[in-house]
Amino acid sequence: MTQTEPPRFAAPDLRATPVRIVPKGGFDDWLATQDEPVRDWVEANGFDGAAGQILRLPAPDMSVARVLLGWGGAKDRARSRFLAAQAATALKTGTYALDGDLTANEWEEAALGWLLSSYRFSRYAGKSEPGPQLRAPRGIDAARIEAIAAGEFLTRDLINTPASDMGPDALEAAVRDLARTHGAEVSVTTGDDLLTANFPMIHAVGRAADRAPRLIDMRWGDSGPELVLVGKGVCFDTGGLNLKPGASMGLMKKDMGGAATVLGLAHMIMATGLPLRLRVLIPAVENSVAGNAFRPGDILTARNGLTVEINNTDAEGRLVLADALALADETPPDLMICMATLTGAARVAVGPDLAPFFTDDDALAMALQQAGRRVRDPLWRMPFHRPYETMIEPGIADLDNAPSGGFAGSITAALFLDRFVQDTPRFAHFDIYGWNPTAAPARPKGGVGMGARALFDALPKVLDL
């Protein structure tokens, strides 16, 4: 697939127009230090340091001498992430250098937000015009920020690509491209070979599609702790024989958002050379309708021997993930992370902006939440509430893939997946949305990564790297 060009900082020797970050608190004191023409211009244009305000200060020849960016107050910045991206969007062309009194975390957020604001998905219409360039602020790890932005661009591209061009075969090709870039190894089990290799639920969900189901397995690194990333790769979800209504099917190209997100995270890890062993598992399928589609009432036997009653073929993501999780658990890694666009219940609970996650490991949860706050990638811990286990135990089989009643849908889905992770010491499951419904600074409408930046920031602490 054609990937959006990864963003880069401007060369440090390029002449750059300064962008002065001006907070609302202390604005009058700052203004008093400026010369009279600047004070007059600022007052005439009503600039007062409010969050996201942009003001160009003219030079004598009427070129732009410098730019002011309103930074607002603490509550404004809590409400709106990536304020520096607003300047990048407003300025459009040229080379700029940020200036101001920020913390180390704020400098990183400002620099990353500027890079992320340049994303345009132009594969099918228009073209990606070069935007304003930013010189990397002093004190940040520019290569690391570029790697994070490139990983996010990869995630967005994969989610935004329609299923006509992003089926299981294309997803495999994207993994192979990423592996070639970083010297990773890839093995793939496809079609009826899934049955021979004991991945029965991946095969059952994907067998009705023209493009064969597959399990994609990528490995990188030969020393350090082992991290396994499992990403749901349902490239399109019709709902199967429990067919979705048209309105619910409209965004189902994004049902491989978990796979897209772990691949973006994998790029961050490999591009920065984290000292660990990485394994990425992606069950890639289409949930289609045909005469050989799996049916409501079927009972499937998973890789680990558990039987699953199918009460809704539209609860397919947990089925394909179960086989992949069981495989990883056979040789337990130090940490396993599952990411999936799994339930509508998670969106009802926390909306589209928060990435809810489940873990029994309090230390892991704390590290993730702290990282999410630090890098402005918001997470919310949800409970593995064990009393609800009875809701996924139908009696006729070990597990029910779609318990009736409608209560606690995200929790019961997480509990279902947890049955396939028995020996791995540390496990977290993310029930993400993978889509930004409304454009925001550095986050255009469309596919978006959720939780990857927080995980990347937390990994050194969690794995003692």
Would you give an account of this structure?
With 465 residues, this protein is of the alpha/beta class. The chain folds into two domains: 17-140, Leucine Aminopeptidase, subunit E, domain 1, CATH 3.40.220; 145-462, Aminopeptidase. The protein is 35% helix and 20% strand. It has 16 helices and 19 strands. It has helices at residues 27-32, 36-44, 74-79, 83-91, 104-116, 142-160, 168-182, 193-196, 200-206, 246-249, 257-271, 317-330, 344-350, 362-374, 409-418, 452-462, and strands at 17-23, 54-58, 64-72, 95-99, 133-134, 185-190, 214-220, 226-231, 233-237, 277-287, 299-301, 307-309, 335-340, 355-358, 379-382, 399-400, 427-431, 435-436, 446-447. Strands 6, 7, 8, 9, 10, 13, 14, 15 and 17 form a nine-stranded mixed beta sheet that branches. The longest helix has 19 residues, at 142-160. It is elongated, with a radius of gyration of 24 Å. The model has no long low-confidence stretch (mean pLDDT 95). It comes from Jannaschia pohangensis. InterPro entries: Leucine_aapep/pepB, Macro_dom-like, Peptidase_M17_C, Peptidase_M17_N_1. Belongs to the peptidase M17 family. One of its GO terms (molecular function) is manganese ion binding. One of its GO terms (cellular component) is cytoplasm.
